[in-house]
UniProtKB/TrEMBL annotation:
The keyword Transmembrane helix does not apply. Belongs to the cytidine and deoxycytidylate deaminase family. Its cofactor is Zn(2+). Residues 25-145 form the CMP/dCMP-type deaminase domain. CDD domains: cytidine_deaminase. One of its GO terms (biological process) is cytidine to uridine editing. This is Putative C-U-editing enzyme APOBEC-2.
Length: 197
């Protein structure tokens, strides 16, 4: 990955409660929220790290992250509202998200609508965990996203290291993967493949 320009957006004060946009993620929050355990008890937020390549080298990559509370506007929706409010049809947007959990069914539908309406957006979502993947509604949402051209992936150990280096206030500390990270990745990878095949 080439060096990237770091920019952060500040949400209007009214939105800060539900969707904060900060420069870098607190390392403890990252290790807790992105941990790819199967039972994600207590993890009631979504963290969304994003890279946006607008195909214009002068502007570099836009980079940042969002976090939400599940009671407020979800991070996925907040991304399109706050980070990419204007769509320039002349530009091609290549967007990559690293999210702590995959989208709920409502967000999956909203994202799919955006992708259908804005053909100049290519989105890849890397998810640490699959959110409630056993639910039929959730699976349907993932299939709708897949059909809309969204690339869905489960985060590999290397993706966690990359996210740590790129989005976390890591104070130059190396990232130590937790036990079972690879096994959990393989588990979710297999489930996702079964769902969207
Ligand atoms: Zn959602």
């Amino acid at each position: 990955m080439p060096p990237v320009d770091c920019r952060c957006w500040l949400a209007p004060p009214a939105d800060r409660e539900h969707s904060r946009m900060l420069d870098r993620i607190d390392p403890f929050a990252f290790k807790f929220q992105f941990k790819n355990v199967e039972y994600s008890s207590g993890r009631n937020k979504t963290f969304l790290c994003y890279l946006v390549d607008q195909g214009n080298t002068a502007d570099g990559l836009l980079k940042g992250y969002l976090e939400d509370e599940h009671t407020g506007c979800h991070a996925e929706e907040a991304f399109f509202t706050h980070c990419l409010p204007h769509n320039d049809p002349a530009l091609k947007y290549t967007i990559t998200w690293y999210v702590s959990s995959s989208p709920c069914s409502a967000c999956a539908e909203k994202i799919a609508e955006v992708l259908k309406a804005r053909k100049n957006i290519k989105l890849t979502i890397f998810a640490a965990r699959l959110f409630e993947w056993e639910e039929a509604e959730i699976q349907a949402g993932l299939r709708i996203l897949h059909a809309a051209g969204c690339k869905l992936r489960v985060m590999k150990p290397l993706d966690f290291s990359y996210t740590w280096e790129t989005f976390v206030e890591n104070e130059e500390q190396p990232f130590n993967l937790w036990e079972d990270c690879k096994e959990n990745y393989e588990y979710y990878h297999e489930k996702l493949a079964e769902i969207i095949q």
